[in-house]
Amino acid sequence: MKQSTRAAVLAAPRRFNLVDRPAPVAAAGEAVVRISSTAVCHTDLSIFTGDHPGVKYPVVLGHESTGIVESIGDGATGGGNLKAGQHVIINPIISCGHCDSCKRGEQQLCRNAGLFGREVEGSMCEYVHLPTRYLHALPDSVSLADATIIETLATVRHAQIRLGIKAGESVVVLGQGTTGLLHTRLAVLAGANVIAISRTKWKLDMAARMGAQHVLDISAEKAVDEVLRLTDGCGADVVIDTAGGAATLMASIEMLCPGGRLSPYAVSHECCTQFTTFPLYYKEISIIGSRALNPTDMAPSIDLVAAGKIDVAGFVSATYPLTRAAEAFDEYERNPGKVLRIVIDSTAN
Ligand SMILES: [Zn+2]
Ligand SMILES: [Zn+2]
What we know:
This protein has about 350 residues and is α/β, with parallel strands linked by helices. About 25% of the residues lie in helices and about 25% in strands. The chain folds into two domains: about 170 residues, Quinone Oxidoreductase, Chain A, domain 1; about 130 residues, Rossmann fold, CATH 3.40.50.720. The chain contains ten helices and 17 strands. One zinc ion binds next to loops.
């Protein structure tokens, strides 16, 4: 292990500094992980641009992170079989363990929760140390760059468990970015009849590869009639909105069948002045929120990728070394229509 760890510190919005610090040591109950790959997502981008509310700078970003266990502190047991050399993915939802939500096993709702890579320093560096309960073993057969998608898959899984999708149901997925494509795939695996909607042709091609029965190049507002047609006039049992915004919310409610469920999966701060509770009453629509992931979502998500049930090819659009983190964010910001995932490689120079 090296004596120092290089970190890409975001000192202020749009200002990365590369800093060398002493390498961490595993305290009792902790492990040190040599970081391999960190995928950048929209949360990171909004912190980079200064648009994420309540973030304190300087911050070390990175929460979709994989690496290799370097050393283990005293008394650390972890989620199973953790030893030096083990490939791991990090569950970035840092929870207190003693509030009412944590006691119910709903760590994602922890009253004192933080995100690894926002409230605590994340993985845009070479080495991190953290309690072993946040580490989940990965099989060597999955590349550490591809495996970063498992964190996102676990958040998608968490939302779908809450939606309770059943075989034979019709599911509309609005938007086919990374989360939209993973929603499409998981709904297909649940046996649903999936209608994937996007305005980007190559993303629809990927949605077809994920197994979507229908792919529509159309805006959400214009998709209502088409969804009704494809569902024999009934409307969809489930709509998952990964695009977000007021117009999509209203269209989502309109395209649901009576008794339908809506996941407003994309976080939107846009005020929806058209919304009334009437359709919730009249059609008995359920709006089902979901936040991040529960630790129990990690192992099944790892298994899905390891078993090849999620085809991860094509998700990583570009890879940058840690030393060029700023360029990675520039590309992500400039080309949102061309990028699915950008990965920061902490092992490259
Ligand atoms: Zn993320
Ligand atoms: Zn808690």
